[in-house]
Structure formats: C-alpha cells, structure tokens
Amino acid sequence: MATALYPDWDSIQYNDGDDNKTSLRKLYKIKEPKQILEKLDKIATNLPEETEEEKSGKALISKILGHIKSLCSDPEGPHFSEPPPKQHIYRKEVGDKNQKKLNVINDDGQWRFNGFPISHAETEARKKFFWSHIDLLGLFFSKLGPAPQGADKYNFFLPLTAVFARWSRHLVKGKLNSPNMYQCTWAEPEPGSGKRTEFSLGASLGGFQPKSLGDNLRRTRFAMLSGFRNVTEVTINDWDTGNPLPWAFEHSQERLWKFGNCAETYPLFQLLAESDEQTTTYGVALRKGATDEVMKQDQTLSLAYFEDKMLERVEKKDAGGNPTGEYEHRHLAPPCGNCTHLVDVIAEANLSLFTPIDQFRDPVDFQEPNDEPPDD
Fold it and tell me: Largest Cα–Cα distance of the chain, in whole Å?
C-alpha cells in the first residue's frame, strides 16, 4: 500500500492521560457537550510542564478552558445565563432601566471588548480579544501548537478543522445560530530554519441571539480588524461603480455579510499580522454542512470519507443551470470577497494557498490500484 497518499486521521495524536493515543479520529467522534469538555480537561491536564515556558503555556490553556466553560450551556455556565437572553457571548447591559440593551463593548465607547484579553503579546495594541466560546475553542487548539512534526494539510490541519467544526456545532445550544464556516490558517517556516509551523483556528459568527446582540457583535468584530496591519489605509472598490472607497463597515466586499464576520478573522489577525517574510501562509475553510452530512454516512472516517465527501468536487453551473466545465469543492470553501481583500491586498499573502481547488488534489488521485483504506 502506498504511503502518505491519502488524508490520515491517526498519525498525529494528543495526550489525554488515558491511553496516550487520542487521535483526531477519536476526537471527531465525540459530540456530547459534557464529553467534549471532559476531553478538553484531560488534554489540558496532561500538557507537559517541565520548563517555565511549558508551565506558562499550560496555565494559559487552563485559563482559556475556564472561559469556554463559563459560556457553555451543558453544564450551564454563569456567563451563558446572564444577562438574559441566554447566549454564548460575554456581554453586559448598558443604558438606563427604560432603554436597556446588550453590548459587547465597554462603557468608554472604545472598541475594547467585554470579553477577556488572552495573548502573549507584550503591547496593548497587539492583544486579541475573545468573547465567544467558539473562538475560545479555536484559541485552545491553537495554543496547543506549534503544529506537530510532520503535520500537513491532510494529516493535521484539515482533520483538526473538522474536529473544531464538529465540536463547535455541538457546543451551541438549541436554536442559537451555529457558525456557517470554520477556518485554519498556518504559517510554514523556511526549510532548515529550525522553526515550527504555527497555526490558528477560527469560525464565523455564531452562538448569539441576533435580535438582542447581532448588529453590535458584528460591528465589534469588524472593529477588531482596525489593528490589522495597514487595513484602514487600504481603499476598497465600490460594488457598483468600481470607485475607491475608504475602509468602513458599510464598504465590505460581500453584499450579505461584513468584514469581521468571517471564520478567517482571528486566524488572519493572529498569524498574518505577525508573520515574517520567512514563512509561507496557507489556509483552508470548511463549510458547516460537512461535519454533519459526512458523519451520518461514514462513522469510521475512512479513506472513503475524504474521497466521497470531504474533498468531493462538483461542477459549477451558470445562472441558467448549465454545466460550466469548471469545478469547486462541495465542503471546502475559497475565500469570500472580504477575506480575499484581507489575504491578498492587506496581508499580501498568496491567495492561491487559501484556495482549495488549487491546494487539494482530486480524491481519485489518492488511491493506487491495490490501495485499501486504513483500518479504523
């Protein structure tokens, strides 16, 4: 059987203290909120702490996990419940008793979020703020990094994104909206540099009550981007006229959602804003339907999982429904207009390295005549 030709869920594992073999395959199969939190607890508890750096990293992971639990609904955390209505967002009431509303910003009017700043950055300007338990879950996984030795898009970044997506979906209570997209960005150093690959996970907006908090949350997340390189100095082209427009919430490159809504927001902010010229940055985005649709059809996460679903390509159709001869992935998404602007124009990264049709081989290429899927 040929090696390394197919995506692999088992070669990279996390230590959970039980059997020391918690693979991404095993993590993906967990879906009950209490079991997810228990597994996060075990992973956090069994992190090494021999050096001062390891001790600091373990303390940070524990702090992040505490915030995740405070916003979860099963069991119900204090910040999920209050103030009403219940939702997975750090928030507070503002205004007088007759005109109360919910906000995710502090009273001083500055775009300082009503979440908890968690960052190793030394300066206030570089701190990233988190107010959603989904974004905090992405941060939890990201801070377990750098990526393990031998990690690539098939054996780590795409499978880990799928785990993140599935767990996020099951940690959102009832009718609260789940994110539509989940994304992983990673920065590979030059060969021989001795550096490891850093990565970051993020999701589009989710876990909140749109009527009570929606617009304020969208604008708050947009405002976070104001610290992203030269973002406020780069002009945007008008949808209809093509004329240049200043950076603004209303001038986003997508008609239906604004800058800051996308799953790429935290990963781009964290990695691209701080990357150096000696790294090459990649990204992959997974649509929310992938985790539920695929899991129903293939509980084993075998090679067929990727061949038939995760990496499935479908032919594009024109406005009249006619085949175009061009293909795209059903479950992997290219950068939207907003993310294209951030990646290509502002971060000056290679957009093709964020485009799945350019980055992922056709699944039919994975198998050779005598290949068989790996044992479950």
Answer: 72
24-33, 72-81, 135-144, 231-240: lowest mean pLDDT where?
231-240
In order of 25, 250, 274, 324, 347, the CA distances from 335 in angstroms are: 27, 19, 20, 21, 13
Buried b (16+ CB within 10 A) or exposed e, 52-62: eeeeebbebbe
Measured CA to CA, the distance from residue 331 to residue 3 in angstroms comes to 25
Token digits of residue 15: 């230590």
Reduced to 3 states, what is the DSSP secondary structure of residue 297? helix
Question: Which residues, in sequence order, are bridge partners of residue 282?
Answer: 186
pLDDT at 202 over 80: yes
State pLDDT tens for residues 292-323: 655 555 455 554 555 567 788 888 899 898 99
**Polymer length in residues for the chain:** 376
Helices and strands per DSSP (H, E), number in the chain: 12, 14
Is residue 143 classed as helix, strand or coil in its secondary structure?
coil
Phi-psi region of 141 (alpha: psi -120 to 50; beta: other; left: phi over 0): alpha
> 130: exposed, middle or buried (C-beta count within 10 Å: 0-12, 13-18, 19+)?
buried
Q: In whole angstroms, what separates CA 295 from the centre of its chain?
A: 19
3-state percent breakdown (helix, strand, coil) of the chain, nearest 5: 40, 15, 45
**Residue 329, φ and ψ in degrees, nearest 5:** -80, 145
pLDDT digits (tens, 9 = 90+) for 150-197: 888 888 898 899 899 989 999 998 778 889 999 999 998 888 888 889
CB atoms < 10 A from the CB of 37, how many? 18
